[in-house]
Design brief:
With 228 residues, the protein is mainly beta. Helix content is 3%, strand content 50%. It is built from one helix and 16 strands.
């Protein structure tokens, strides 16, 4: 694990990550995405991009008022776990969505999380994850793109705290193709990987330069019928 150990030196980055905010666009008579998976304490923000709509929970737990046009936004924080909260736009009967609220403390992370993870709609991007059993660490590699739209990757490792690992990730440069060496690592981002089970996870990321942050909903590429 010399490679992973070297990356721990990137921990100079501050990685305090709090409850996440997930965005849902209201446009073209649909909610995009139609289903979001969050953790207790997270907030969903709906933003209208066109026609007259509103957001109303089927169980009556939230509603932002009557359907309206314009660029309105509506936010709702979910403080209790729920397998599925259905909602709709009252102006279009077929326009429905759902929020799945997980309790992060309910899953014990194990070897089953190892594998490839992706976000729907993000072609050519994703994570690979390894579970280090002897010291309960997560080693992850993030495949994405840089500002020039060129492929890049960052990697790092961190111990699990509950069902999450906050990883200081670095990028590498000045290496030689298919040749040995130890190219220097440059701090890139802090990424908190939270596993709700062995098939679903979330990446809350904070990039150093340019400063930015966000959340990625992750799914295991090859889903498992049973978590272990």
């Amino acid at each position: 694990m010399r490679f992973a150990a070297g990356l721990i030196g990137l921990s100079i980055m501050t990685s305090a990550v709090f409850a996440a905010t997930v965005q849902v666009n209201v446009r073209n008579n649909r909610f995009d995405p139609e289903v979001v998976t969050i953790n207790k304490g997270d907030t969903v923000v709906w933003t209208n991009r066109g026609s007259s709509h509103n957001v109303k929970a089927n169980d009556g737990s939230f509603r932002n008022g009557a359907a309206a046009t314009g660029a309105w936004t509506f936010s709702q924080t979910f403080n209790a776990a729920s397998p599925e909260i259905l909602y709709q736009s009252e102006s279009v009967a077929s326009m429905t969505g759902a929020v799945v609220v997980n309790d992060p403390a309910a899953y014990t992370v194990g070897p089953a999380v190892a594998g490839a993870w992706f976000t729907e709609g993000y072609l050519g991007q994703g994570f690979t994850v390894e579970y280090v059993s002897f010291d309960k660490q997560i080693f992850a590699t993030w495949f994405t793109y840089n500002a020039a739209k060129e492929p890049m990757w960052a990697a790092g490792s961190a111990p699990l705290v509950g069902n999450a690992a906050t990883i200081s990730m670095g990028t590498f440069s000045n290496g030689n193709f298919a040749q040995p060496g130890s190219p220097p690592a440059s701090p890139f981002a802090s990424v908190k990987l939270t596993f709700t089970d062995c098939n679903n996870a979330r990446a809350d990321w904070t990039r150093l330069s340019p400063a930015s942050s966000g959340t990625l909903q992750l799914k295991r590429l090859l889903r498992l019928d049973k978590c272990y």
